[in-house]
Amino acid sequence: MTELAGWSSAMILALTISSQVYAQWRSKSCAGVSNWFFIGQMLASLGFVLYSYLVENWVFVWTNAFNFVAALIGQSIHAHNRRMSREVIAAAGQTG
């Protein structure tokens, strides 16, 4: 069970990051960060916290807890920026 938690989390994180890198490479832009990037990072970080706790590796418990918080903040910023972008587009449509 312990190894399954660690390897599953590692795979989630690897798939999430590689998907994001591919999307950015394909679009030739860094602007296309999706919600799934942060959701995957949060799920993987929580899984790694569980795994690190089960193997009693306190450094990784705290490291991955921090990564979870960073992803949560990143998701919040992403949602805010997307909302602001929609407002700018809507305002431009009303004046144009």
From TrEMBL:
Keywords associated with the record: Membrane, Transmembrane, Transmembrane helix
Spans through the membrane: 6-23, 35-53, 59-77
Gene3D superfamilies: 1.20.1280.290
Protein's name according to its UniProt entry: PQ-loop repeat-containing protein
Organism of origin: Noviherbaspirillum sedimenti
Lineage of producing organism: Bacteria, Pseudomonadati, Pseudomonadota, Betaproteobacteria, Burkholderiales
